[in-house]
Amino acid sequence: MKHQLVIGLDFGTDSVRALVVNAATGMEISSAVHYYKRWQQQRYCDPATSRFRQHPLDYIEGMEESIRQSIASLTPEQRGQIAGLSVDTTGSTPGPVNRQGVPLALLPGFADNPNAMFVLWKDHTAQQEADEINALAHSWKTDYTKYSGGLYSPEWFWAKLLHILRADEAVRDQAFTWAEHCDWMPALLTGNNDPLTWKRSRCAAGHKAMWHETFPGLPGEDFLQALDPLLTGLRDRLYEETFTADECAGTIAPEWAQKLGLPANVKIGVGSLDAHAGAAGACIGPYTLVKVTGTSTCDMVVVPYETHKDQLVHGICGQVNGSIVPGMLGMEAGQSAFGDVYQWFVQVLSFPLTT
Q1: Which range among 40-49, 108-117, 156-165, 337-346 shows the weakest confidence by mean pLDDT?
Q2: Distance CA 236, CA 157 (A)
Q3: Which of 76, 226, 247, 321 is the most buried (most CB within 10 A)?
Q4: Tens digit of pLDDT for each residue in 307-333?
Q5: Peptide bond before 70: cis, by omega within 30 degrees of 0?
Q6: Nearest to 306 by CA among 278, 322, 329, 274
């Protein structure tokens, strides 16, 4: 019996990893890793000001190289069995895009502008904006932070985009809307150049952008205008509906099928965030804690939605219906930059050995 194969793309902080898996048995067939070239040089970053930006070309080149390497050892028959491809990314890692869904950093005049790139999850330049969001939300008629642990982070969607809008007039004028990295990749692979029709990740929207079905959707236009008039009208250029990662974003575009050496009928899944995909990969079950360890350490739990949907947990990074497993309430907590701290510690300990 011929089994279908699927590809998982994991966009991490330093690299992208491609994994080919037998969909029926879970057996790993092959894998490959590509390290971001510009990121390795720390281009567009300024640690002194907590600025960490990534160029979309790093993502594109990493995707191309890791997929090609991962399928290089497959037989022609196995390549023909590849039926699906899904993506997870760090989060929140949003970036500005134009009306055609192109990240501004890929356009003339913006190629070396850090504000036109994706704002990596650990970028903390938006601390002031996060403080303002929290102050307003806690005094508003609806506390839009209540499903995000009651405290909005400078690492998340609204704080970051507001910081860029305030800081860079050129980006502000050219950005039609904003996209999480995990939303842009499926759109790119399916050839969808209309951001208004992208299938946005429930995972990213709920945990990082204060989206909740009871609000309904994203924070209200009146709230956003009160936060800063620069946000006026942006809500209408984002999204109302969100999708879980088990849903299909579309079929791979012919140009990408040809470039990557994949069948023309490969289905592209809706994107997700890395820790949440990791919990699903660990076969998380109800009331089980899964610790996903990487650049950060994330604590993931799923519980029945109908049983716990009205129980708010203070201090976590969100509780979202379907963000990890469809039909279950996904909860995220953890220690941000946990792995980064260990890396720093290793460098400190090894300093005498390198001098």
Answers
A1: 337-346
A2: 16
A3: 321
A4: 999 999 999 999 999 999 999 999 999
A5: no
A6: 329
